[in-house]
Structure prediction request, 1430 residues.
Amino acid sequence: MSVVAEQAAKKNYLAGLREALLEEMEARPDMVCIGEDIGLLGGAFGVTEGLMERYGPQRVIDAPISEAAIVGVAIGLAMQGRPVMAEMQFIDFISCGFDQIVNNAATMYYRTAGKVNLPIVIRGPSGGYGGGGPYHSQQNEAWFAHSPGLKVVCPSTPADAKGLLTASLRDPNPVIFYEVKELYRKRDIEEPIPDNHFVPLGSASIRRPGNDVTVVTYGNPAYLCLQASDELSSEGIDVEVIDLRTLVPMDDETVIQSIRKTNRVVVVNEASRTCGFAAEVIARINEMAFEYLDAPPLRVTRADTPVPWVKPLETAVLPSVESICDAIRRVARF
Amino acid sequence: MSVVAEQAAKKNYLAGLREALLEEMEARPDMVCIGEDIGLLGGAFGVTEGLMERYGPQRVIDAPISEAAIVGVAIGLAMQGRPVMAEMQFIDFISCGFDQIVNNAATMYYRTAGKVNLPIVIRGPSGGYGGGGPYHSQQNEAWFAHSPGLKVVCPSTPADAKGLLTASLRDPNPVIFYEVKELYRKRDIEEPIPDNHFVPLGSASIRRPGNDVTVVTYGNPAYLCLQASDELSSEGIDVEVIDLRTLVPMDDETVIQSIRKTNRVVVVNEASRTCGFAAEVIARINEMAFEYLDAPPLRVTRADTPVPWVKPLETAVLPSVESICDAIRRVARF
Amino acid sequence: MAKDSTTVTEPDSQAPSTETQSAANRARDLLTPEDHLEILRQLYLTRYFDVRLIKEKRRGRLRGTLYSSHNQEAILVGTIFGLRPTDWLSPIHRDMPAFFLKDLKSGWDDPNRMGMSIQEVCAQVWGKATAPGRARDNWSHIGDAEKGIICSTSMLAGTIPVAAGIAYDFKLRGFDGVVLTYNGEGATAQGIFHEAINFAAIHKLGVITIIENNQWAYGTPVELECPTKDVADRAKGYDIPGLIADGQDVLDVYDKTMWAVERARRGKGPSLIECKTFRAYGHGDHDDDRAAKYRNSDDVDKGRSRDPIAVYKAELVRLGILSQAEADAYKPEGKHAIETTDEDFPPAVVAALKEAVEFAVNSPMPEPDEAFRWVFAEDQP
Amino acid sequence: MAKDSTTVTEPDSQAPSTETQSAANRARDLLTPEDHLEILRQLYLTRYFDVRLIKEKRRGRLRGTLYSSHNQEAILVGTIFGLRPTDWLSPIHRDMPAFFLKDLKSGWDDPNRMGMSIQEVCAQVWGKATAPGRARDNWSHIGDAEKGIICSTSMLAGTIPVAAGIAYDFKLRGFDGVVLTYNGEGATAQGIFHEAINFAAIHKLGVITIIENNQWAYGTPVELECPTKDVADRAKGYDIPGLIADGQDVLDVYDKTMWAVERARRGKGPSLIECKTFRAYGHGDHDDDRAAKYRNSDDVDKGRSRDPIAVYKAELVRLGILSQAEADAYKPEGKHAIETTDEDFPPAVVAALKEAVEFAVNSPMPEPDEAFRWVFAEDQP
Ligand SMILES: Cc1ncc(C[n+]2csc(CCOP(=O)(O)OP(=O)(O)O)c2C)c(N)n1
Ligand SMILES: Cc1ncc(C[n+]2csc(CCOP(=O)(O)OP(=O)(O)O)c2C)c(N)n1
Ligand SMILES: [Mg+2]
Ligand SMILES: [Mg+2]
Prediction:
């Protein structure tokens, strides 16, 4: 393949998501999409662009501004065996549909003793670093990781975006799917996406192999961790970066294996600190690999604050290359 | 005081809560209570018994079945400087008012840069062990511990119930207050409650001093931990039981001090495992006392399932004296 | 609650309100004498089921809370009787008998019928492995997709959007089924009630919201839940019909339901039916004593004075379907649940319950290990 | 949107609908010529503020999204003009000018007035430490308890219960203040809209819900948000007045608002006012181009054809308050925001903005350390 052709084949994160949706809608005529402004407009960010034109307003529902009803209707459709994609315009608004998700969707399979499963993907743009303020910057995945019966996914590359969304849409369980909106159109992460790309849920990816310190992360901070690793390699610290990709179920194996090798770990999530997913990772590491730890596992997270709007304030509370480097240095030199 | 008089002065957990409410309503004529069936009926469990008779239907509002509006109205009242008690009939239903809590109440002080604080206590019966099934057994405190701006409290004794509720009602911030409904009328925990009892938020209580293993817990499992300690003392394991009482802010100091002494810790919460508060405690211990740990900090929690209704199933998933003993033995013998 | 409160709000301009009125009163004319006798049998059965559970509960044989449907039987029987087996239901806490009433006409014991058997329902009450959902949640929170019954959470009004989703599926498939959801008048204050009915109205889905207005939501009177004169007025906010039925009169409930059902089958969208009734006892059995604190006993006596079984039997006598002697053969009506005896009910009804309770009692408990199962579905083939 | 769509639903039996109609049309008669000129000035100011921000945004000088209030000025000015300084407001994303319009009559620069200054509002837009809330949240999410403005979250309709809480406090204190909340027609689909208005109606609280029905909720037309003929019909579900105002006619908006406000002051409870208008541009400035995809340009032209400034000036000429020459002195009406120039606006308006923008631009950014402050309030004395 010529360089030009290969260039042309590079796709952004958003394209990966769109492809997954289009292919699944095409392959499964019973699938339905529902969300605010996903049809006529094609979605606030364009993830669903072209869906309504292709599959009509019956299968691509422009829902009223009713997050709880969107989830509830998705449950009804899924009970009838239909795969459903339900979009939250920003994942921040998921709190308005919270009860239907944690109490109804998450537990249906359990309550019916395995009779009714719900193939629903609730997806939406998430994350900070874009100056969105408290209500357009959330990564509230810990709420859902704490709600048994939900899978939780957060891809950070275009290929993973497609592969994991495909896997999520085919999964028989409700999945909360965190898209990193700052990555949607980021040029320098564009990459070719293989045809029929499928990334099974529950498998982490080693984004950078290394021997000295393991860094466990997901979402946008994966790039900060990679940058930090580059910086630290000049200081002689060889970092292994693990992108969890799926939080529930979590790929314990890959994390533990890495720690057996490095004996040191830093966990990074961009959500607020207390009861964030990083705490969960650390608890598991303690349970499964305590003997291998030569230094305290540290967390780098957002401060326990909302995400403020003004840029210098936002920057102050979110994980940065600097704060990640600091933590890695601390465990490396412990 | 004669034994008889002392006996008479013993009060149950529910009485402690009621006293706190009555005293604060009496002392602060601007205070308002709002909730479903709290007035005419006096509350599903009787915590607000007598309030409406004394303070009238204007200050004790029998709200419609609208958890979100209850919280939102409480915010408006609190903005006008009124202390507000908002009851959730069961804490499980808090998910219906979730957005107003985590996005509106929790962040108001932050968003107004310290101009508007909200003295609201959202309280309600919580917890399992009573055969309530998935929607009458939750302890969903981790969701709120993960939402900056909320304090989170969970007393386990009658005196703490009163002292912490008093402190919460006087706190200028929104507090989510978890009452353990299985303890409401439990006879064998009744105790005298000092007059004007006040337990400051953020202070843990050492329920049993010990030297070998620290157990950190709160709520109903505190009693399971005490029982486990008794059993294990015969095996020569001397357990220190710390009842956190307040999760946010957490009394790190007491926990860390204890671990410096015992070098071993087990954390018990009755909520489901992944991203539960126990994980947070373990992450903090790693950050603050890693060098003192001689064994992996372990968690005992509910399994990652809803709380099933039928008794043997409920028992299977919740922490028990047995599972707590097992974990303590494991860390003691590590 | 008087018969004359029967009105129909029909904003749909194609159906003028006079025509509507008569349409709403005509469904009963199609009932055969056999239908009438079946309806009566179902009323007895519904009452007896509740009476039996009340007694079992008092004897301490049952766990969980019993929300009695006593005095509200006409709503359950009247709304369900005319449905097709393939229609869906979503009952709430006070509607325990609805689970077996669904498709009961097909025969009480038909294993293929599109409703649960009385055995299954009793197994649920007793918390046994033979219950739908293997008793993982309590009492009325059962469902069965194969039987067309939504499994509800405790969160009131929370199944209406699910009903809308099912009805949306019907629409996509060109199927003319309907979904009935049950809600107390108190539940109409929930946000999800609004979101779901709004959605159903926009898409003209076959969702029918039955409001069992028994005047009380636990310890809160209807005036503190709903600001409109009638709860049915809520419908006006969605431009859908808001019907009012006399909840003590099974035929009026039946008429109104059939009108809404037929309208929904024609693709004209949702309706709301307020059935006016009165809660006979406490909110749940734990509240029986406390309820006296907040409900005046005169009001309670008055509220209970039109027993739906008595009302219906009088009508059947008037229609010549029952003789007075036949009507008087079994007389549970007007009695407090614990004052009734088995002699107050037809032997077949008593026998059916006896068998069901035995089935439940003799069924095994679920194994503790089950508690860890079915959190996640395995990948489907 | 024609004047004849002006109707009033008044379910309150004490106020028959004919009387109501005239009451609703009489408020304007109390306005003095000075009031009229102040209203016009406010319309110019509101328009110019938006125009200025649109231009600043295009030049890349601002962060965040601008939700233009162009063509909807009459709603903001007309609803706020007659309020008392002690009344409360809760504007939403499209209502940025509302923050300074509140109590603007007290003088643009009065530091004690019960509205924000234009400086403060610009400081917020520019994200400076001098903004209310020190720019910790963006654009319209500001509030100030001292100025009687609720600080909103992004979650639509989420301030209505807060408004109800404030109005409940008024009731407890025997104070006859009112709280106006603003919502798009799309926001009426939210569950909290229902819960909050239901609560306000039950307790007859002074909460007035202004619906800015600009026909579109982002990319979704009103028919997919609301099933009733008029959004005002939502009011019927709560037995509260549902008024319809011509959102292009500031005096009609004013009349309807004053009617609802006076009613609320008399303790008769909430109202809902649908102001019919049309969104001039994209949902936000980021959507200006995409909006052409989902909105037909004929409809857009038609929707923008009755510029509220033109409508009002014609009325002032008719009333003899303005000469035609005076009316023609400044003519921003009918022009696209970026086609207008400073000459289209009165110099005082231009100067006020200039000063405010300078204030904003010259204000300091908040210090990064502030980000960690004010998560929790310290114990109060
Ligand atoms: C969202 C939610 N809030 C609170 C409750 C607790 N609760 C259970 S039943 C009930 C009263 C219901 O009243 P109503 O809807 O009139 O039904 P009824 O019991 O009278 O049949 C309440 C408040 C609940 N189940 N769900
Ligand atoms: C609960 C919630 N869901 C979704 C959004 C995203 N959102 C912001 S504005 C908007 C459209 C609002 O339409 P409308 O209420 O008609 O107001 P308009 O913008 O037309 O003035 C949406 C969907 C939100 N802010 N809050
Ligand atoms: Mg009721
Ligand atoms: Mg709009």
User: Anything to note?
Assistant: Chain A touches chain C at residues 32, 58-59, 61, 63-64, 66, 68-69, 71-80, 82, 99-100, 103-104, 107-117, 148-149, 151, 170-173, 249 (CB under 8 Å).
